[in-house]
Amino acid sequence: MTHPRGGPAAALPGVRALVFDVFGTLVDWRGSIAREARELLAPRGVSLDWPAFADAWRGQYQPAMEEVRSGRIPFSKLDVLHRRNLEVVLRQFAIRDLDEATRVQLNLAWHRLDAWPDVAPGLQRLRERFRIAPCSNGNVSLMVDLARRNGLPWDAILGAEFARDYKPKAAVYQSAAEAFDCAPKEVMMVAAHSDDLSAAARAGLCTAHVARPDEKGPGRGESGPSVPVDIAARSLLELADRLGA
Questions:
Q1: What does pLDDT average to in each consecutive run of 10 residues of the chain (245 residues)?
Q2: Parallel, antiparallel, or unpaired: how do β-strands 17-20 and 187-191 relate?
Q3: Three-state SS at 143
Q4: Residue ranges of the alpha helices (H) in 109-158?
Q5: For the chain, N or C: smaller number of CB within 10 Å?
Q6: What's the CA gap between 132 and 147, in Å, rounded?
């Protein structure tokens, strides 16, 4: 059941660790990828709808991971999948004759995403009470680079590369709990995506929804959860308030 906004979270005294979705929940992938693509490609004579380019690249994300989840291809880091997806999107936008060095730098744009303004201060507060880590489909080097860029004070880097599989597979959430020597019910998954939280709940974790209503463009993100969650908050700072951090 969702606790009312602003209400206490006293029903969750056993939570010892928080794990976080990253893309969209903590960082603005759409605005950042649009900016990075423009900065790299515009000087090379490319002119296009940069947010649409970001959307198209992100649109390849779930289908690529499903290749791994289904067993059709071996586990591959997200950087590898992003590069494969980039080639698809470059063809889609008729971008040709792009040199390899530029393709490499463009793929690394995912390592240069900017966090939402509440994220670094919110995590700092939450870390004073809880162990914290990403539980993302992003690979370790990607998570480290985002942390260093944005001042994210992780205790560990967990998620897909650690579990060798991709969310929403239960093993990804459960391996994060195991890494912290916690039972699943002692860990709270924090995300801006109801499907992520639904999968985490099925894996035994507590759940918190953080609203990111503009994640996919103005008004195109989730302003609230569409599934039952333990807490619904408007920001990480509000989540810290709700958890007494």
A1: 44 88 98 98 95 96 93 95 97 94 97 98 98 98 98 98 95 98 98 98 98 96 97 98 94
A2: parallel
A3: helix
A4: 119-127, 140-150
A5: N
A6: 12
pLDDT of residue 126: 98
The structure tokens listed for 189 are 């998954």
Instruction: List the one residue out of 78, 64, 82 whose CA is nearest residue 160.
Output: 78
- Encode pLDDT of 33-71 as tens digits: 999 999 999 999 999 999 999 999 999 999 999 999 999
Q: 14: which 2 tokens? A: 């056993």
Query: Half-sphere exposure of 89 toward its Cβ, with a 13 Å CA cutoff?
Result: 26
**What is the Cα–Cα distance from 187 to 213, expressed in whole angstroms?**
25
Q: How many CA atoms lie within 13 A of 209 on its CB side?
A: 27
Reduced to 3 states, what is the DSSP secondary structure of residue 31? helix
Distance spanning both ends of the chain, measured CA to CA: 22
